[in-house]
Amino acid sequence: MPGMLYNFPHNTHQQQQHAQHHANLQQDHAAHTTNGAVLGHHTSYSSGVLSNSTPNFTPSALQNGHAGATTRGGQAQQISEHWADQLKLHKEAEKAHSSMVEGGAPHHFARLKAAENKTTAQPQADTEGEPQDDEFKDLGRMADQFSEKRRQEWKTLDLSGQGLRVLTMPVFNYDFLRTLYLSSNKLKELPAAIGRLGNLIHLDLSFNQLTSLPVELSMCVNLEQLYLFDNRIQNLPVELGTLFKLEMLGIEGNPIDEEVKQMIMERGTKVLISHLRETAPSKTIHSQSLTSTA
User: Fold this and answer.
1) Measuring CA to CA, how many Å separate 242 from each of 131, 238, 262, 272?
2) What's the total number of domains in the chain?
């Protein structure tokens, strides 16, 4: 009993110290677990498809490229199919840029489309019957004429990955062009003469140093795809509201106005084009640009 009474206060003090030490260990462990979870979250975020996007974008930009991953005002936001397509195209543009700049292989699209650009058409006999004997001697001449005509029917020009700083006027004399690749160059501006290429359907200006677009681009009314990925564009001219056929306006990788980006993300390119048209200060702007170009 004396021994027990003598040791009791001492044991109680040791138990209290041990309990306090155990509590501190639990707090440290909990803090470590929380920090680990936060670090894990940031790791997963940084591996998303927008990891290379311009830092000027707000958190409303899409995270990780999955539906429902974005937030706007603290609420979950569903990714539209249109924006998902844009992110896919942006990734493809990044790969092309890497191939041309880092891999030293310019004209990426010409090489990619080479098989598609080959003409397989051949001269055919009269549909009403077989060629007559006196027609066989003219087949060689017909083939030569056909080949000459075929050489004039190219409608795609690939100037990508050339390190171009300025576009010269001869380029804009090819008013028959339907596809023009100018990506992965060092262009700081797009000449007003672009308005001469009214037959363009596809124009790729990705990975340049453009800060703005000329109003004359609004004259390319047949455009269906306009890719501006990874430039320095902040605002779009309202004159682009004339591009009624535009289906995809690629703006990812630009410090673009947040309202413009949100409109494309949530409602698509056509809604944005309609908005630009409705907010144009004057209906005469487009006609004035036509007159100045002429």
Assistant:
1) 50, 9, 21, 11
2) 1
**Residue range(s) defining the domain that contains residue 182:** 78-114+147-293
Q: Which two tokens stand for residue 35?
A: 């920090």
The one-character DSSP state at 28 is H
pLDDT (tens, 9 = 90+) of the chain, 294 residues, equals 344 433 444 444 445 555 555 555 555 544 444 444 433 443 333 333 333 333 333 333 333 333 444 444 555 557 899 999 999 999 999 999 999 988 888 888 988 877 565 544 444 444 455 545 554 445 455 445 544 445 547 899 999 999 999 999 999 999 999 999 999 999 999 999 999 999 999 999 999 999 999 999 999 999 999 999 999 999 999 999 999 999 999 999 999 999 999 999 999 999 999 999 998 876 545 454 444 444
